[in-house]
Amino acid sequence: MKKNGFTLVELLVAIAIFAILSALGWQTFDHIVKIKERNATHEENLAQLQEAYQQIQRDSLQIAAVVAGNTEKPQAALVLQNQNLSFSKSGVIDPLQQKKAPTERIEYQYNAQDKKLYRLKYTYIHSARDQQPVSSVLLSRVDQLQINVLNPTALDHWPDMIDPNDQLALRRLPRGLSIKFSIDDVEYEWIFDLLNTDFIATP
C-alpha cells in the first residue's frame, strides 16, 4: 500500500515560500512602524511650533515701551544683542490679587549646545537681574536661529548706542520682529508686526 506524504523537495519548497512570505510581511510591518513613528514626530513638531508661535505672538502684541532696570543701569524697552532678545511686556493678569506689577520682563535666550530656545520671565522689570526667572522651552531641536528686528530693514541688534539718560530713545521700539530657525533640516521664518503695540515709533 502506497503511503501519502511530502517529499523532501516539497518540504524545501514550502519552507522557501514561507520564508519569502515572512520576509515580505516583516518588511511591510517595519514600513508601517516607521511611517507611524514619522507621523508621531511630525505631530509633535507641529504641536511645538503652534504653541511657540502663539506664545511669541502674544508676547509681541504686549511689548510695552517701558524702560527696565534702574536709574544707574537702565535697559531699553527692547534689547537685541548677541541673538538674545529681551523686552518689557504689559498685560499681566492678577486674578488672585497678589499685587503683581502690571509689567514684566521677557527674554528669549538661544542655547546652541542643547539646541533650545528658552523663554525667561522676570516678574519685576526694575530688578530683573537680581531675581530668579521662570524658565520654559519655546522650541527644541533648533539647529540654527536668527533673530532680527525690522525697522524697516533687518537689524541684528537694537538699539544703537544711545544716551542712557535719553528716556525717549530708551523707549523706542522697532516696527517688527523676525525669527528664522531650522528644525530637522526644515527652515522656518516668523514675522511679527509691532505697530499695534504700545510703542514710540522711530522716525
TrEMBL record:
Database matches in Pfam families: N_methyl (PF07963), T2SSJ (PF11612)
Any Gene Ontology biological process: protein secretion by the type II secretion system
Coiled-coil positions: 32-59
Compartments where located: Cell inner membrane
Swiss-Prot/TrEMBL keywords: Cell inner membrane, Cell membrane, Coiled coil, Membrane, Methylation, Transmembrane, Transmembrane helix
Organism annotation: Acinetobacter rudis CIP 110305
Keyword Hydrolase carried by entry: no
Main location: membrane
InterPro entries xref list: N_methyl_site, Pilin-like, T2SS_protein-GspJ, T2SS_protein_J
Family according to the record: Belongs to the GSP J family.
Protein name per Swiss-Prot or TrEMBL: Type II secretion system protein J
GO cellular component: plasma membrane; type II protein secretion system complex
Annotated membrane topology: Single-pass membrane protein
